[in-house]
Recover the amino acids of this structure.
């Protein structure tokens, strides 16, 4: 079975539309973008398009790349305090002159629709109400849409990043999966993946997962998006982390493109609605806390 993203993403967007319409005030997504990097411009316009499509408000703060960190932090502070703003994100990457971690930590956790703030990460791991990161939450929604069970499954996630691998492990653990996280230093990756009922590839390595690494009948989710050249018309040619031959052994596989990708933006819209629901029910945006890991 091919697990196509678009119908599952549409179901999520439809749910977001219905829940938004039930709120006293329209949820508002604010996106801050610095500079004119073409990929960032196109990601941000896709987010805006999807927000508008389901009846949310959308504001893009397009600032010059020379914007100082202090100016950026003061805009974030103003948007944190503005009750009309439900969700706020800063499009990455930021120019090297800016401390990205400091900027992301300045966003109020209640409006942090990317789910990257350490307070949301902590809430996610402790099972408290968190805004989850969009790609892993989108993967869970995709599994739900296709009726694929998670509880009791042995899942191997290949990749331990803060935006995909680790938060996905937290979400699947909360659904009673038995989760193993593999990474670039894992010896004999194939021995692990062959034991799994479900393999999630989020390594950023084209065609890393081959057919002999998959147990026949396993479910395979391909999060990878790798540019592997150009098409004749000059568009980027994309490959996932999973070799297409895996379709012959897996019970179900997500395509790239058109699998997990559409779920990510749909979940960003859902997070904006979730944030609006909580804020409009009277939850106060908390002061962002400075979090530092001690070396
Ligand atoms: P990352 O570079 O931050 O992390 C990659 C992880 O994979 C690391 O933990 C690394 O240890 C592991 N890894 C790398 N090579 C490996 C190997 N050969 N064997 C085992 N583990 C290996 O990447 P990321 O930000 O988590 O993104 C992962 C992939 O997912 C990328 O292709 C990215 O483009 C894609 N992605 C897609 C979406 C989407 O919406 N579809 C969203 C985010 C990321």
């Amino acid at each position: 079975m091919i697990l196509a993203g678009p119908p599952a993403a549409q179901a999520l967007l439809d749910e977001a539309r219905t829940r938004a319409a039930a709120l006293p005030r329209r949820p508002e997504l604010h996106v801050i973008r610095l500079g004119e990097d073409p990929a960032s411009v196109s990601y941000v316009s896709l987010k805006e398009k999807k927000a508008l499509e389901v009846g949310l408000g959308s504001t893009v703060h397009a600032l010059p790349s020379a914007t100082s960190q202090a100016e950026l932090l003061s805009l974030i502070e103003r948007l944190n305090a503005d009750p009309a703003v439900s969700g706020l994100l800063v499009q990455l990457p930021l120019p090297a002159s800016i401390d990205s971690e400091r900027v992301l930590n300045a966003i109020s956790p209640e409006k942090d629709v990317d789910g990257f703030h350490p307070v949301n990460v902590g809430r996610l791991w402790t099972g408290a109400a968190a805004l989850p990161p969009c790609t892993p939450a989108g993967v869970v929604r995709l599994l739900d849409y296709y009726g694929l069970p998670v509880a009791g499954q042995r899942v191997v996630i290949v990749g331990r990043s803060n935006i995909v691998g680790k938060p996905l492990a937290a979400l699947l653990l909360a659904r009673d999966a038995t989760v193993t996280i593999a990474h670039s230093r894992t010896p004999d990756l194939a021995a692990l993946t062959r034991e799994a009922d479900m393999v999630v590839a989020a390594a950023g390595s084209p065609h890393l997962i081959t057919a002999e690494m998959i147990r026949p009948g396993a479910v395979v989710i391909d999060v990878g998006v790798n540019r592997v050249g150009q098409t004749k018309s000059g568009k980027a040619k994309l490959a996932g982390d999973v070799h297409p031959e895996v379709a012959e052994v897996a019970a179900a596989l997500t395509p790239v493109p058109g699998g997990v990708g559409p779920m990510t933006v749909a979940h960003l819209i859902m997070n904006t609605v979730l944030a609006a629901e909580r804020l409009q029910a009277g939850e106060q945006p908390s002061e962002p806390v400075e979090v530092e890991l001690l070396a």
